[in-house]
Amino acid sequence: MTTSVIEKLRSAGIVSFIDFISHDVDVLATKSGVGYRELAAIRRAVINEHAAPVVGGCSLFEVVVATTSIVSVGCRVLDSLLEGGIFTSEVTEVVTDRSSVSDALVMNAIFAVLTTMNKNVVFIDTSNHFAVTCLAAMLESKPDVDAERALKRVKVVRCFDVLSLLSELSVLCDAQSLISDDSFYSSLKLVVINGIADYIIPSLSHIHNNAGCGYVSQLVHQLRLLATDLCCAVLLCNGDGYLAVSKNASGERTTPVGRFWCSVPDTRLHIIDITGERTESCDTDNHKTLRRVKVMLSESNRLPTEQSVELAINEHGLFT
After folding, report:
1. Which residues have CB under 8 Å from 132's CB, separation 6+?
2. Residue 276, Ramachandran bin (φ over 0: left; ψ between -120 and 50: alpha; else beta)
3. Which of 71, 104, 120, 307 lies in the 20 to 30 Å Cα band around 192?
4. 294 within 8 A of 280, measured Cβ to Cβ
């Protein structure tokens, strides 16, 4: 494209690539005085340089199949509710009342990854809530499981502020470059983060000018990288009072950081302890070792919501 051609196109009212591409070549040749073949060649060159690459549906499907897997939560009924379990490339949140019973879903998911998939787990604890003795009891209840070896595949990291949490997530996201130094990350399949909405989000809600939303954006970015680039299942565990609220004359209202956080999970499960309700209507002797929870699917971008299942938990914390 020479200077004279550019001047002729400008005289015809062409000032951008969009103007050039949107014009009919025959009409533009008449207006500008530039030859049809020359304009057609320029048009092809511009399109080849600036157009998005064409990707076939089969290629996209192969990428999805190669990067997506399903992590069982250790219960066929609950797996059926979730159409197989916890999907990699998604962020799943479990909202509980923080009782030992309601934490069973997270512990059973870790148990299933260690025993069924023989993969590794990273547990990021922001509340100092993780009890390794409970997981050890679950593993020891299965005679065919080497509890000591399985526990070595769990890495527990404690982060009590947003900066240390971002730092640890950054290390996990860079894990592909660390595989040669630490083989742990090559078999990483599940990342559990406990208490973000309980302890991290409220502290961000009080930062001036809603700057806490910037930190939440960075957290979301790191979580998405974990779920997509590392093909990990990301499981968040938070209490039922997880919304960050502020009080004013008109009452309590959700802060911008709290509203932002509500849109983060792709799937949200609410867990309610119903052991008391069940024992009142059943024989206590037959149910003294069984505890029960109700799991409700309250939010999902691929499944119908408001579905629920009731599950029994034995004395070891395993779903029955």
Report:
1. 151, 154, 156
2. alpha
3. 307
4. no
Which of 144, 259, 127, 237 is closest to 190 using CA atoms? Answer: 237
The pair of structure tokens assigned to 47 is: 């399109």
- Examine the pLDDT at 244 and tell me if it is beyond 80: no
- Rounded to whole angstroms, the Cα distance separating 320 from 311 reads 7
CA distances from 110 to 1, 121, 184, 295 (A): 62, 7, 16, 17
Query: Residue 53 has what DSSP assignment?
Result: P
Instruction: Quickly tell me which residue has 């290390």 as its tokens.
Output: 171
Integer Cα distance of 265 and 114 in angstroms? 24
Using an 8 Å Cβ cutoff, are 139 and 145 in contact? yes
More confident residue, 148 or 285: 148
Cα(215)–Cα(223) distance, rounded to whole angstroms? 12
Query: E strands, the chain, where?
Result: 70-71, 86-87, 91-96, 120-125, 154-158, 188-194, 233-239, 245-248, 251-254, 267-273, 291-300, 307-313
Task: Characterize 2-16 residue by residue with b for buried, 16 or more Cβ atoms within 10 angstroms of its Cβ, and e for exposed.
Answer: eeebeebbeebebee
Confidence of residue 245 (pLDDT cuts 50, 70, 90): low
Strands 233-239 and 245-248 come out as unpaired
Residues 6 or more apart from 319 whose CB is under 8 A from it?
Answer: 74, 75, 78, 104, 108, 311, 312, 313
